[in-house]
Write a structure and sequence with these properties.
The complex is a heterodimer of chains A (156) and B (278). Chain A is of the alpha/beta class and 156 residues long. Chain A contains 4 helices and 4 strands; from the N terminus they run βαβαβαβα. In chain A, 35% of the residues lie in helices and 15% in strands. In chain A, strands 2-1-3-4 form a 4-stranded parallel beta sheet. In chain A, helix 3 links the parallel strand 3 and strand 4. In chain A, helix 1 packs across helix 4. The radius of gyration of chain A is 15 Å and the shape is globular. The two termini of chain A are 23 Å apart. Chain B has 2 domains: 138 residues, no CATH class; 124 residues, no CATH class. In chain B, helix 4 packs across helix 6. The longest helix of chain B has 16 residues. Chain B is globular. The model of chain B has no long low-confidence stretch (mean pLDDT 89). Classes of the chains: A alpha/beta (156), B alpha/beta (278). Chains A and B meet through helix 2, helix 3, strand 4 and helix 4 of A and helix 3, helix 4, helix 6 and helix 8 of B.
Chain lengths: 156, 278
């Protein structure tokens, strides 16, 4: 296991009962909004797919593009970053910086041939448990359609 | 031109206005050039200027903190100096920039599409004789290679880059020649955490090349040194140009155009693109 503990992802491609592909998605959620929003979805007993593995970060602006790359290189099928709505950032402007950075990253990943569906972003507030459930459903469906991640798989 | 460069260098050194002049001198093979570090007025005659002066001399400026340096700068070198000044890596008052108007197309492939052959920032501009000053570059074709790639199917693009990156031997020559790659500890050298494999595996190579390119987003001035230095011929400029294009299209930002401007990712606008966010 590496320092970040994601090495096992490659072997962790779970298959659903019917043999379909179950995507493995990493979610980076800001502590102040989206993480609480996901918590609300849980305490409200909303049903949504369990494919997103959540990593709590202080702010969406804390997310380094290396995090996304690391996830994709280590076999995650997709990455979702979620933070506070614009104007609601706990640190005033963290999500502005994130938005600018990841707009470029998304287009760049697409340019090198990585399906843009594998990298997604959302703004979910602490009161939007229902939105979180909806976002996850959409993202999981998107990535299910994109298929398993083979970006760094060596040619057999 | 070379007489004017030598004259200026001599003047600066003799008057102790600078401690050193960085320019180009002939290398042992009699054709190509190497960087020259001249600290005495008697040695200025070894300076040369021709189409073989490829190196981006901005790369050396950070090595002499506190010293006054005169530097020969082509259009692209000067843009690199602007970015370094923006990022507080250099002190303007310690620099004397000898801008040279370069002969276009002669130096390398990138020059054919160079938008500005004249130094963006200089204390003196030495002009090429017989050339119309400020002749526009051939900017129309600057993104031809990028657009050709964009037009291909995603799987083709991935296949192509996988193929290119699989040749990488991780010599990090691209990093060493880059004036913008000055992190005290490069992510590629970190072990705690190890961001990506150091082996020449496809995974590590892919991650390294993508990381390197993205770290230059909004900072790369397209001096083309990385691609020139690459021993296995990976078209690194196609990555850099894509990011340059994105910065231009999304944020109207051009690296190296203004010392006062805030770096691309150290600023934001309330009206930045947001359609990709759910």
């Amino acid at each position: 296991m590496s320092a970040l503990g994601t090495d096992s992802m490659k072997d962790d491609k779970k298959m659903a009962a019917d043999g379909g592909f179950e995507p493995n998605i990493v979610g980076f959620l800001c502590n102040w909004c989206s993480y609480a929003g996901a918590d609300l979805a849980g305490t409200s007993r909303m049903q949504y797919p369990p494919n997103v593995k959540i990593i709590r970060v202080p702010c969406s602006g804390r997310v380094n593009p290396l995090f996304i790359l690391k996830c994709l290189m280590d076999g995650a099928d997709g990455v979702l970053i979620s933070g506070c709505h614009i104007g609601d950032c706990h640190y005033s402007e963290g999500n502005y910086y994130a938005r600018r950075r990841f707009a470029v990253l998304k287009n760049f990943l697409e340019y090198i041939g990585i399906d843009p569906r594998r990298f997604q972003m959302s703004w979910v507030s602490a009161a939007e448990g229902d939105k979180w459930a909806k976002v996850v459903k959409e993202v999981v469906e998107d990535i299910r359609n994109a298929g398993p991640n083979t970006i760094s798989a060596e040619k057999k | 031109m070379i007489e004017e460069i030598r004259q200026k260098a001599k003047e600066l050194l003799a008057a102790s206005k600078v401690d050193m002049v960085i320019g180009y001198r002939r290398s042992g093979d009699g054709v190509s050039t190497v960087p020259a570090f001249i600290d005495s007025a008697q040695d200025v005659d070894s300076l040369v200027w021709d189409q073989n002066c490829v190196y981006n001399l901005a790369n050396y400026l950070r090595e002499f903190p506190g010293k006054k340096i005169g530097v020969v700068a082509k259009g692209c070198d000067a843009r690199a100096i602007v970015v370094l000044l923006q990022e507080n890596q250099l002190e303007r008052e310690n620099l004397f920039i000898i801008g040279v108007e370069c002969g276009v197309t002669d130096i390398s492939e990138k020059c054919a599409a160079c938008p500005r052959t004249v130094s963006a920032i200089c204390d003196i501009l030495i002009k090429e004789k017989g050339r119309k000053s400020g002749a526009p570059g051939n900017e129309k074709d600057a993104y031809a290679a990028v657009e050709a790639l964009e037009a291909r199917r995603a799987e083709e693009r991935l296949g192509l880059w996988r193929e290119e990156f699989s040749r990488c031997i991780r010599c990090y020559a691209c990093r060493q020649v880059c004036p913008m790659c000055y992190c005290p500890k490069c992510v590629a050298d970190q072990t705690m955490p190890a961001w990506f494999s150091k082996a020449t595996s496809l995974e590590g190579n892919f991650a390294w090349n993508v990381t390197r390119a993205f770290h230059l987003a909004g900072r790369c001035v397209d001096c083309g040194e990385c691609e020139r230095a690459c021993p296995v011929g990976i078209p690194l400029r196609d990555l850099n140009k894509k990011l340059e294009k994105e910065a231009k299209e999304l944020y109207k930002y051009e690296a190296g155009s203004s010392v006062e401007a805030k770096p691309l990712f150290a600023s934001y606008d309330k009206d930045d693109p947001k359609d990709f966010i759910k």
